[in-house]
Design goal:
single chain; alpha+beta; Aminopeptidase; Alpha-Beta Plaits; 2 domains; 34% helix
């Protein structure tokens, strides 16, 4: 075992420069959601160059590489899309320059999550070279449209290719801490109905915006109550409001708001249903899950139902124990601290299928989507080592 570990360390030293260079190459490619065609082609080419046994792009546009054909299957997932840059002049380092400044790799996607893409792709290669992949099948997926549609990419992939891994690693940023789960999410649409009338005679109509006004206050009050709870707590945010009227001179006949509700362990579908029923009680209003519709870069329609329960893998699960061992080998000490993400990830699909799932990735997730997004270069290298050793441990 020690000989193999030394071998890995030696190969990592030889690989480190290429790994970071590849992460930089990915950051220089603008890959907003639904626009991942260019980065998909680059990733496909790199996997083939590195000797992956199989590389394919599925019909929705996910890029997947496979190494080995053993009985035990482990999969590493990262998404290729990023949020947009709307303030390029505010960045201290240009957002698509991928410059390294004071040991940090800068650029959109450096944290969320192109550094993880590079680390996981090279980990598969290193596992093959060290023999860690013996008896295993390793999949590295680089998925589309995660920023809008958590998990729909993997749902499509698993159905199209008719397979499921034994273990799933979500490579979202965690500051290289083992992450045991994340909060649930419900995105909800509330609509109020009114009666249209001319603006000069509002008494003849019913204003849908006014009908929504008390609902808005109830939403704010509900979030305040959630924030008072001890321990882990959910949140409720109103993120959008719009109305429909015959003209600017007319009483609005419809008003619509969009809510983002984050759930903690113990909260269920019934929790949300009762909460929403209370919020609209006594008003001319309805609520529903706020279905989103997108079109992938390949032209495939995506329909996303944004309702996912919170989840957490047990600290004594065999996958968690394997991660702890890989962590100790990589960092020279045991992992005494776990993380739990506030945000949603592609994990919602494997978790819903009963696949053991855990998180680990380079970068501070608080810097994701931010101006001057950046990731420590050393974290990228360490994540690659961790993934490689985890392959051996499972």
């Amino acid at each position: 075992m020690m000989e193999q570990l030394k071998s890995l360390e030696a190969m990592m030293q030889q690989t480190e420069k290429d790994l970071i260079s590849f992460a930089q190459e990915l950051i220089r490619i603008q890959s907003y959601s639904d626009q991942e065609k260019e980065i998909a082609a680059v990733i496909e080419k790199k996997m083939l160059e590195l000797g992956y046994d199989e590389v394919f792009i599925d019909t929705i546009g996910n890029v997947v590489g496979r190494i080995g054909s053993g009985e035990k299957v482990i999969m590493f997932d990262s998404h290729m899309d990023t949020v947009e840059v709307n303030d390029p002049d505010a960045w201290e380092v240009p957002p698509f320059s991928a410059e390294i400044v004071n040991g940090r790799l800068y650029g959109r996607g450096s944290v969320d999550m192109k550094s993880a893409i590079a680390a996981s792709i090279y980990a598969g290669v290193l596992a093959k070279q060290t023999g860690y992949s013996a008896g295993k099948t390793i999949y590295v997926s680089c998925t589309v449209d995660e920023e809008y549609c958590d998990g729909e990419n993997l749902k499509h992939l698993f159905k199209e290719r008719d397979f499921r891994p034994d273990y799933m690693v979500i490579c979202e940023p965690s500051n290289n801490k083992i992450t045991l789960g994340h909060k649930g999410k419900a995105q909800i649409l509330i609509k109020t109905k009114g009666v249209s009338a001319h603006g000069s005679a509002p008494e003849k109509g019913k204003n849908a915006i006014y009908e929504m006004a008390e609902i808005i206050q109830r939403v704010e009050k509900t979030n305040a109550e959630l924030m008072k709870k001890e321990g882990p707590r959910g949140t409720l945010v109103m993120s959008r409001i719009s109305s429909v009227s015959a003209s600017l001179n007319a009483v609005p006949s419809e008003c619509e708001v969009y809510l983002d509700r984050r759930m903690v362990l113990g909260e269920t579908e019934e929790t949300i249903q009762n909460e929403m029923d209370r919020i609209i009680q006594g008003k001319e209003a309805t609520w529903e899950i706020g279905t989103l519709r997108r079109k992938s870069w390949t032209g495939v329609d995506i329909t996303y139902e944004p309702f996912h329960l919170p989840w957490k893998i047990d600290e004594e699960h065999e996958l968690t124990r394997a991660c702890k061992e890989a962590y100790a080998q990589t960092f020279g000490s045991d992992s005494h601290e776990y993380d739990y993400w506030d945000f949603g990830t592609n994990a919602v699909t494997p978790v819903s299928m009963g696949i053991p799932t855990i998180g680990f990735g380079p970068g501070d997730y608080k810097l994701a989507h931010m101006t001057n997004e950046s990731c420590e270069v050393t974290q990228i290298v360490e994540a690659c080592q961790f993934y490689t050793r985890l392959i051996r441990q499972v």
